[in-house]
């Protein structure tokens, strides 16, 4: 899934309206309209950078005359002191766009860094690390982009593009079999049907219903291995729930195809990145 430039622009414009409003009263009071500046976006800790195209778009929307030069690509491993980008042009624009640009960079780089860590821990096994819908409202497109930058994969984008029958669906519908049958009647033939199960009995029911993907919810790695043996390649197998850096290796070694982790996006720590102004002068 690539970033949709039209949706991206609308999102950034909305965020700029939220932050700047009618005007940046601090900057406009202190900085002359004809002042120009040069600054550098600098990493302050180790990680994986993501969001440089968004940072550039922030400044370009405010002033197409701003010059933004990314010195590394998204996905690059960064270290403290590394210069990620150089920006020059209107001092007012640089100061007004600074916070939003950094917010995007810090948040998305944090997601990419966390994802890269989990991918590294599961390396050598067949499992793909995937995200969930536990994203910041309004920012799902870019947060899922950051997961890909970090080497992960995307699960469904929303409720509209895949069927995922979870425990409460099963309770309301009256069982796994009737849930899968109803989904096949009501959904496009191109949509895969995934069913969440909590035990081996649920695995057998999902297999009998011919689910396309079986999600093993909050199982131990040992029980996952039993489930994988039982499924025997008849469907894709996803592990979900309680995945941490401490157990992801054991989960991957259980033989699952996918490992989903909400922690990639819902509680990630922002990466420390700053913008340093080096010179200010008049045009």
List the SSEs and their pairings:
Blueprint: H1 5-20, H2 25-30, E1 35-43, E2 47-48, H3 52-62, E3 67-70, E4 77-78, E5 83-90, H4 91-121, E6 128-130, H5 140-149, E7 163-165, H6 167-173, H7 176-186, E8 193-197, H8 200-208, E9 213-217, H9 221-231, E10 236-240, H10 248-253, E11 258-260, E12 273-282
Parallel strand pairs: 6-11, 7-8, 8-9, 9-10, 10-11
Antiparallel strand pairs: 1-5, 1-12, 2-4, 3-5
Helix pairs in contact: 1-3, 3-4, 4-5, 8-9
Structure description:
- With 283 residues, the chain is α/β, with parallel strands linked by helices.
- The chain folds into two domains: 5-116 and 269-282, Quinolinate phosphoribosyl transferase, N-terminal domain (Aldehyde Oxidoreductase, domain 3, Alpha-Beta Complex), CATH 3.90.1170; 162-264, Aldolase class I (TIM Barrel, Alpha-Beta Barrel).
- The protein is 42% helix and 21% strand.
- It contains ten helices and twelve strands.
- It has helices at 5-20, 25-30, 52-62, 91-121, 140-149, 167-173, 176-186, 200-208, 221-231, 248-253, and strands at residues 35-43, 47-48, 67-70, 77-78, 83-90, 128-130, 163-165, 193-197, 213-217, 236-240, 258-260, 273-282.
- Strand 9, helix 9 (221-231) and strand 10 (236-240) form a beta-alpha-beta unit.
- The longest helix is centred in the middle third of the chain and has 31 residues, at 91-121.
- It is elongated.
- The protein starts with a helix and ends with a strand.
- The mean pLDDT is 96.
């Amino acid at each position: 899934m690539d970033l949709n430039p039209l949706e991206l622009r609308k999102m950034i414009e909305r965020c700029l309206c939220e932050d700047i409003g009618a005007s940046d009263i601090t900057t406009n009071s202190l900085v002359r309209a004809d002042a120009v500046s040069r600054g550098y976006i600098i990493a302050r800790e180790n990680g994986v950078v993501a969001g440089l195209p968004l940072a550039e778009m922030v400044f370009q929307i405010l002033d197409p005359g701003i010059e933004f030069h990314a010195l590394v690509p998204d996905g690059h491993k960064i270290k403290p002191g590394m210069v990620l980008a150089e920006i020059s042009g209107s001092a007012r624009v640089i100061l007004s766009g600074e916070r939003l640009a950094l917010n995007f960079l810090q948040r998305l780089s944090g997601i990419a860094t966390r994802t890269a860590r989990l991918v590294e821990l599961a390396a050598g096994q067949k499992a793909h690390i995937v995200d969930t819908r536990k994203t910041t409202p309004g920012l799902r497109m870019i947060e899922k982009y950051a997961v890909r930058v970090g080497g992960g994969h995307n699960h469904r984008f929303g409720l509209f593009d895949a069927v995922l029958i979870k425990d409460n669906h099963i309770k309301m519908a009256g069982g796994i079999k009737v849930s899968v049958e109803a989904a096949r009647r009501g959904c496009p033939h191109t949509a895969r049907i995934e069913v969440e199960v909590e035990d081996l009995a649920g695995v057998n029911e999902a297999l009998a219903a011919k689910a396309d993907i079986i999600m093993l919810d909050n199982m131990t790695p040992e029980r996952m291995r039993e489930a994988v043996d039982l499924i025997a390649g008849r469907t894709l197998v996803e592990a979900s729930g309680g995945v941490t850096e401490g157990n992801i290796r054991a989960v991957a070694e259980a033989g699952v195809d996918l490992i989903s982790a909400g922690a990639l996006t819902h509680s990630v720590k922002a990466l420390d990145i700053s913008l340093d102004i080096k010179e200010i002068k008049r045009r």
